[in-house]
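subagent[fold] <- orchestrator: predict structure for attached chain, return tokens only, no commentary.
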Amino acid sequence: MSGASTTTVSVVVPHYEAPHDLSLLLTALELQDHPLHLLDVVVADDGSAQAPDPGERPYRVRVVAQADEGFRAAAARNLGAAAGSGEVVCFLDADTVPEPGYVSAVVRAVEAGADLVVGRRRHGDLASTSPDQLRRWFGGDAASAPEEFEEPAWLLEAYERTDHLRTAGDDAYRFVISAVLSTTRALFEEVGGFEETFTAYGGEDWELAHRCWLAGATFHHERDAVAWHDGEDFAGRTDDDDARRSRNVEGLALARFVAGPATRGQPGGGLVWDHPDVVVVLDDAAGGGLAEDADGADAVACVMSLLAGSDAGVWLRDGRVAALLDDPRVHVGEPPRAVLGRCRYRVDLDRPVVLVGATLAELAEVAPVRVGEHLVVRRTRDDHREDGAEVLVLDADGVSADVPRAVDLQRAWGRADHQHEPRFQRSGHLSERTPSSVTERPIASA
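subagent[fold] -> orchestrator:
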């Protein structure tokens, strides 16, 4: 964009008992080249014994606080974001100091179309750095710079591999770190902010980023938005027992909310999750021969075929067959907003159908996909974007002529000739799938 930016920015700083770190960060914000009158700084204190004092600053700054009830960084960030008013919400951990061009680099990325921006986090020994030394360092005095530690190689590789998140997939959340995270306020409020049940180090940033991704957000890693973290990268401490325990706790917390093989392993592993990977909404009182089948066997058969081997949950609009399905994955009514905001795939059925020859999990891997007339597996992210992938169309006779040949199918309506093993292919990724047939079988036609 031409001319000076007029974008307002709320800088939210979660803080707990770290006056030296906070002093450095607030000093670094004084040196930003983004107009300071457009900054709205909120220190969100997580129950420090003595409330932090930001002092006089050339920008608006306030302190909001919550009671000390243990580690509640996620709740503190939400508290701080709610107190701010900027169009962009810029989260910076208290032990992180942004270089003078940090905020302006974030704003440029947002103005260019990014909804979520991850800065570049570098690492140094800031424990003995004073505010005056910081000013000299950022003013160009190399002798005042702290000792620098190695940047996390796994993050550098991920950003390079994904063209700085422009080509990232469903694992994009894994490369988002809250210490240097910014979002538009509109996106942050749309997804509902951080999940406050995270009460241990790590995980809440990935969980938030996962929901932002599913909501259709555009991600961007901005290398020019550089901030320095005090100390080495925690994730790289592989020989530290405390670090390993912390990652285990983080992994278990993530698995509750973030679906997919990276957190839960392969679908059908035996555990039932409150937030399934695939959400199915079934009108169990319509079509499929239910009028003739008063005992609801059609709907039961449909639900069984959809749940088999899949990380799925089924919501019955009518619920007349719920009593026949003693399964915690089966619900009555509409899926809650929190569930819809975390599932990667969505299926809406206006009648009971039965999958033959493939599981719902296998179809999800090549979604968006249509099978027959009634079954469509949609990607949640695609529902929020205009540039979603082309729908792969499968039917009982094979692949329709207007779609590149990606799946070999056999007609499987009541047939058991499963000798051929098809290959499912989308975007160059090839994997084996069995058995051979994929079709939607309406029960009334069986």
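orchestrator: received. Logging for downstream: The chain has two domains: 9-258, 278-445. The radius of gyration is 25 Å.
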